[in-house]
Amino acid sequence: MFKIARKKVLSSTVQLMEISAPLVASSAKSGQFVVLRLNERGERFPLTIASTDKEKGLITIVFQIAGKSTLQLSTLPEGGVILDVLGPLGKYTDLTGVKNAVVVGGGVGIAEIYPEVKELVHEGARVRTIIGARNKDLLFFAEELESAGSELFIATDDGSAGRKGFVTEILKELLDSDKSIDLVLAVGPVVMMKVVSNLTKPYGVKTLVSVNPIMLDATGMCGACRVTVGGKVKFGCVDGPSFDGHQVDFDELMKRLGQFKELEGLSKQKYIDSLKCEKCRE
Amino acid sequence: MPLIRKKTEMKKQEPLARAKNFNEVALGYSEEEALLEASRCLQCKKPFCVEGCPVNINIPAFIKLISEKKYDAAVKKIKETNGLPAVCGRVCPQEEQCELKCIVGKKNEPVGIGRLERFAADRERESGSIEKNAQELSKEKIARVAVVGSGPAGLACAGDLALLGYEVTIYESLHATGGVLRYGIPEFRLPKEILDIEVNYLKQLGVSLELNVLIGKTITVPGLFKLGYKAVFIGTGAGLPSFLGVPGENLTGVYSANEYLSRINLMQAYKFPETDTPVNIGKIVAVVGAGNVAMDAARVSLRLGAEKVYIVYRRGEEEMPARKEEIENAGEEGVIFHLLTAPLEIIGDPATGKVRALKLIKNKLGEPDASGRKRPEPVPGSEYTLEVDTVVSAIGQSPNPLVPQSMPELKTAKHGNIVTDENTGETSVPGVFAGGDISTGAATVIAAMGAGKKAAVSIDKYIKKSL
Predict the structure, then answer these.
(1) What b-and-e string marks burial along A174-190, b requiring 16 or more CB atoms within 10 Å of the CB?
(2) Which residues of chain B make contact with A24, given a CB cutoff of 8 A?
(3) What is the average per-residue pLDDT within A101-108?
(4) pLDDT band at A214 (very low <50, low <70, confident <90, very high)
(5) Do A256 and B258 make contact, defined as CB atoms within 8 angstroms?
């Protein structure tokens, strides 16, 4: 059992939780993730570790409410428990030697880039962070990213915060004006990572993305998370989650992510209906 | 009493009924059937059957106890060397081990040793005497030992170490114990309740279980020594799935057998949406491979409503590596075999990325290859296409690379298996022992248990030497 030590609502669809998991916290590095299972009937699903507090034995996860499991997780209160937490999983992202990085975060990726931003700053790199969302209500972590020591750029679809437009427009300007950028790191929706990778390719700037395929055991045993990288089959869970964005087959990744869409929808709807039922019983 | 030539039949569920449910297929012996079968044992002075058993169960002794109706004593006799008799009685390939060596089997059918082992264990469980039979062990422990992985090798090693007086902790990365017994073998061949009870028996012996800990990531092996363990046994199995290496293997609807069976067995996707883990079965399923894992994948597909299920295998009937019994079971239930057939390509729908068909080619058998089996060679011009919507790759697994990757000083061989001394389980690192599929590559449950037991003996020697 793993206790939810703190819970914070970041936006209408995004929440942050600090979970007591001392063994995970003590060995986690940037870019790694955990797999959760909420209860006996639950599925196993991966979430990136957004930060750790080794002394208190806490890990922070930030998640977007999407399917049944994340919806159910969002209903758990502070002090509540999660049945299973396994981690840290995946390879950590090696950022040594980077001098001038642009880090792009979209959706929950905004929180997931936080450990990397901190590590890059720690490495002595210049770090510019671009975060994007549909509108300002869906933005979060801006203060954290700034206080971690990065220059922050914001893009929203409706212009309610920062620049009106996409993260890629800001990224393009930075790439055009600064030829010394030696790393672009993008974490977020697959479409965003694909567009960022396509943009940076002609500039020849190394681009890392963090893939989010469907996983089951997440220890390299099942291969559900197969991703084609540079024409080779890789396992997202043990070979990744960080890969060269110029080599990843994003279209295949998207198709594989959608393979249980119908069943996932059914599962979520059944859960929503059961919540309604509980309410009418009250 | 004249010798009965044939093994006493064990009742099974009817094929058509069982192909639609997850209840156990083989129903076990009644007391009368067990007594009849036990009477067939010749009680050889020099029992070859014991030599055939990787954990050297005293077979004539336990069969004699059954024939004397001393069922508790019989199961105790088995448990002297095998802590998981209900599991082994079900999934061991006895026909290649103890029963192969049985003297009765030279001219007639061998004694049904596996069925009798199962009878003794089931009887103990059903009569509720497992707890009563658990031994009282000394509270004083010699030292602490960590066992990595709760599959057959780890469970056997942990059980023996506990009996030898050690404080044992098993670390398991999944949320449930049993390894392949849990995620690989389906409910209808090994009910999970039986596995739970056998694991509980280990707990009664004082073994602790730490779930959700991935050794190599959560804690490293050197980290375990820092925690005070005097020795570590690695039994992490052959968890790395092999894929077909043909175009189209990343289409949706293509699964490794590990993923397919884990969804169904470990995550209980067969109860979806009551449980949260989905699996798409499809109407027509092709399972590539013909080992026990392939048979399991084919048979769960039928149970989950597939209309047609094919086994596609590159060699012939004789070469199929699965147990005869399981091949027969699959055939009776309606699995269709495409033997001497190899996949060339998985064809998908370009728009959706879903599997649509499997392009195959017929093989003929040529000269024996390195494995001693006749090499399959494609017959030119014999290509054909089979419409399918699900493909399961069940062509084998390699040793799990996670522990070796986290520990470069641990010597591995070409296929990633940990190099061990066959007799002792010692690895290249002092105090670290390994056994089961992680050192041999994919093999059987009982072979892994045998390796776990051997390692327990050498861990005991190793620790006592250093005390």
Answers:
(1) bbeeeeebebbbbbbbb
(2) 218
(3) 95
(4) very high
(5) no
**Rounded to whole angstroms, how far apart are CA atoms B170 and B1?**
49
Chain B residue with CA closest to A258: the answer is: B252
pLDDT at B55: 87
Q: Do B259 and A216 touch (CB under 8 A)?
A: yes
CA A68, A72, A76: angle at the middle one, nearest 5?
170
Q: Please check whether residue B397 is in contact with residue B208, taking contact to mean a CB–CB distance below 8 angstroms.
A: no
B219-250 pLDDT, tens digit each: 999 999 999 999 999 999 998 999 999 999 99
Residue of A nearest to B353 (CA): A255
Mean pLDDT of all residues in B148-171: 95
Question: What DSSP assignment string belongs to chain A?
Answer: -EEEEEEEE-SSSEEEEEEE-HHHHHH--TT-EEEEE-STTPPPEEEEEEEEETTTTEEEEEEE--SHHHHHHHHPPTT-EESEEEEEESPPP--TT--EEEEEEETTHHHHTHHHHHHHHHTT-EEEEEEEESSGGG---HHHHHHTT-EEEEEETTSSSSEES-HHHHHHHHHHH-TT--EEEEES-HHHHHHHHHHHGGGT--EEEE-----SS-SSSS-TTEEEETTEEEETTTT-SEEETTTB-HHHHHHHHTTTHHHHHHHHHHHHHHHHHHHHH-
pLDDT of residue A175: 97
Listed in sequence order, the DSSP H helices in B134-176 are 152-163
pLDDT in tens, B425-439: 999 999 999 999 999
Write down the domain spans for chain A: 2-89, 100-210
Number of A:B CB contacts under 8 A? 117
User: Do residues B148 and B157 lie in contact, with contact meaning Cβ atoms separated by under 8 Å?
Assistant: no
Q: Is the pLDDT of residue A282 over 60?
A: no
The helix or strand, by DSSP H or E, that contains position B169, with its residue range, turns out to be strand B167-171
Q: Thinking of the domain A100-210, which architecture would CATH place it in?
A: 3-Layer(aba) Sandwich (3.40)
Q: What sign does the dihedral B104-B110-B115-B121 (CA atoms) show?
A: positive
The Cα–Cα gap between B397 and B405 comes to: 17
| pLDDT range class, residue A126, cuts 50, 70, 90 | very high
Helix (H) or strand (E) holding B230: none
What ipTM does this complex have? 0.94
Q: Exposed (0-12), middle (13-18) or buried (19+): which is A262, by Cβ within 10 Å?
A: exposed
Neighbours of B365 (CB within 10 A): 16
**CA B363 from centre of chain:** 29
Mean pLDDT, all residues of chain B: 93
Tell me the average pLDDT across B120-138. 80
pTM of the model: 0.93
Q: Which residues have CB under 8 Å from B2's CB, separation 6+? A: none
Query: How high is the pLDDT of residue B415?
Result: 87
Class for the domain spanning A2-89: mainly beta
Closest B-chain CA to A22: B218
Q: What percent of chain B has pLDDT over 70?
A: 99
Is any Cβ of chain A less than 8 angstroms from the Cβ of B249?
yes
User: Which residues in chain A touch residue B401, judged by CB atoms under 8 angstroms apart?
Assistant: 220, 238
Interval B294-321: pLDDT, tens:
999 999 999 999 999 999 999 999 999 9
Predicted pLDDT of residue B368: 87
Contact indicator for A223, B241 with CB cutoff of 8 Å: yes
Q: What is the pLDDT of residue A277?
A: 72
DSSP string, A81-130: EESEEEEEESPPP--TT--EEEEEEETTHHHHTHHHHHHHHHTT-EEEEE
Which class for B142: exposed (0-12), middle (13-18), buried (19 or more C-beta within 10 A)? middle
